[in-house]
């Protein structure tokens, strides 16, 4: 005891602040803090995937009505089952089964607080002593943060920009060993804007089977495909290797704040049950929070009643925005886009530092861009690709064009003479 103060025995857990710093939110917060308060222009948010604040991306009226009806019914102010209420799980099973060669049951569906809790659940379950997991590079950094928090070893396989960001399957095989438990794929791709073909996904499943691992298929951007390659869910190949599908209503319905996601087993052979994975998942969910019950209650109406015109409109907006983004990038010498985005809400571009004066890396580029132009772009280091940038095109067209023109002006000021 010093100066009369007790010798307190509690301490904060080391590592939590470091884990949060590598999330998209953590990095965007740092960039936002670097904005120039004296710049009277509106900030252009090209760094995150939440277009919900733009009127052109407002969610479907059927979705809004479903939530209002659920609240006003007075029937869903209660706690729900930890895996989710049965009508919602049944509706999601039916929704996903439309694209599969077999039928899912409600028991295959677990509801989660957005896709992030689904990630937390499966990585916690798989984090046995000595286990490792294969993550894509570039990828979504929340997987890295959660794996590190759970002491699950990470090994990174590359996505190949010159092949439309396909998985380097030879690299996957070289990385795996007897302690590898799973590989993660994100399709449609965050951060690459890629959409994998049926043939490539089948090869992914065959590789997983050969290695004796499961595939964690992050399909939070499912169906947001607007190029030549249609979206194919990984669950199609569940009979080859067990697949855990992670998804949500966040992106397709443009409601990330509603926090309704799912973790679904595509495993007609029952391997996940036999190995105890399903029992462990249930155990995790029993000690976790679950999505608001009234949002769960709205799910059947949201899935069944949303008009196809709404989905078509969103796809058209994203396609036009992706085209404009790709074309405008060609006008900025210091960034190069290896592949026009085919889906999702992002594109990866390579930064050519040799054309810039006084900028040493992607982080410095983004910090200076925020301060000088009030444009927020995510540095590639955040998603595992140093000296690349992730740009979102899921904003209104005028803001997108304005933001890219500001990046062009920024290059003009910092170009080597």
What CATH calls the topology of the largest domain is: Aspartate Aminotransferase, domain 2
Q: Please give the share of residues in helix.
A: 25-40%
Oligomerization state of this entry? single chain
- Which structural category do the helix and sheet elements fall into? alpha/beta
* Tally of alpha and pi helices: 14
CATH superfamily of the largest domain: Type I PLP-dependent aspartate aminotransferase-like (Major domain)
Q: How many domains?
A: 2
Summarize this entry quickly.
The chain is an alpha/beta fold. The protein contains 14 helices and 13 strands.
Structure commentary:
- The protein is an alpha/beta fold and 417 residues long.
- It folds into two domains: 22-57 and 309-414, Aspartate Aminotransferase, domain 1 (Alpha-Beta Complex); 61-305, Aspartate Aminotransferase, domain 2.
- The protein is 39% helix and 16% strand.
- The strands form two sheets. It has an eight-stranded mixed beta sheet with strand order 2-9-8-7-6-3-4-5. A five-stranded mixed beta sheet has the order 1-12-13-11-10, sandwiched between helices.
- A hairpin with a 5-residue loop joins strand 4 and strand 5 (166-167).
- Helix 5 crosses helix 10 and helix 12 (308-329) runs parallel beside helix 14 (397-414).
- The longest helix is centred in the last third of the chain and has 22 residues, at 308-329.
- The model has no long low-confidence stretch (mean pLDDT 95).
């Amino acid at each position: 005891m010093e100066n009369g103060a007790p010798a307190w025995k509690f301490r904060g857990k080391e590592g939590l602040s470091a884990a949060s710093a590598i999330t998209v939110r953590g990095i965007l917060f740092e960039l936002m803090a670097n904005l120039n308060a004296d710049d009277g222009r509106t900030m252009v948010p090209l760094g995150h995937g939440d277009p919900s604040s733009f009127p052109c991306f407002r969610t479907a009226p059927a979705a809004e009505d479903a939530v209002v009806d659920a609240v006003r019914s007075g029937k869903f102010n209660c706690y729900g089952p930890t895996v989710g209420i049965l009508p919602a799980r049944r509706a999601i099973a039916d929704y996903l089964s439309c694209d599969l060669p077999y039928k899912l049951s409600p028991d295959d569906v677990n509801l989660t607080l957005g896709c992030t809790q689904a990630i937390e659940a499966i990585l916690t379950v798989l984090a046995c002593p000595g286990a490792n997991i294969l993550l894509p590079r570039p990828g979504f950094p929340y997987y890295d943060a959660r794996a590190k928090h759970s002491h699950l070893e990470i090994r990174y396989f590359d996505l190949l920009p010159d092949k439309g960001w396909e998985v380097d399957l030879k690299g996957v095989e070289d990385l795996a060993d007897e302690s590898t438990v799973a590989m993660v794929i994100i399709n449609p791709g965050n951060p690459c804007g890629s959409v994998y073909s049926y043939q490539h996904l089948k090869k992914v499943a065959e590789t997983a089977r050969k290695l004796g691992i499961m595939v964690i298929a992050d399909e939070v951007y499912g169906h947001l495909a607007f190029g030549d390659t249609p979206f194919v869910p990984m669950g199609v190949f569940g009979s080859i290797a067990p697949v855990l599908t992670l998804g949500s209503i966040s992106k397709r319905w443009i409601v990330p704040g509603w926090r309704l996601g799912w973790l679904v087993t595509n495993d007609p052979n029952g391997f996940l049950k036999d190995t105890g994975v399903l029992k462990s998942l249930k155990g995790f969910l029993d000690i976790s929070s679950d999505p608001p019950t009234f949002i769960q209650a709205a799910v059947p109406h949201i899935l069944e009643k949303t008009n196809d015109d709404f989905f078509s409109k969103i796809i058209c907006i994203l396609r036009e925005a992706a085209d404009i983004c790709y074309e405008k990038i060609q006008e900025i010498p210091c960034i190069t886009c290896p592949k026009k985005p085919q889906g999702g809400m992002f594109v990866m571009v390579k930064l050519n530092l040799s054309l810039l004066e006084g900028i040493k890396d992607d982080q410095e580029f983004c910090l200076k861009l925020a301060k000088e132009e009030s444009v927020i772009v995510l540095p590639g280091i955040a998603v595992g690709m140093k000296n690349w940038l992730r740009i979102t095109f899921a904003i209104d067209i005028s803001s997108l064009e304005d933001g890219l023109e500001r990046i062009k002006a920024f290059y003009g000021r910092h170009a080597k003479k």
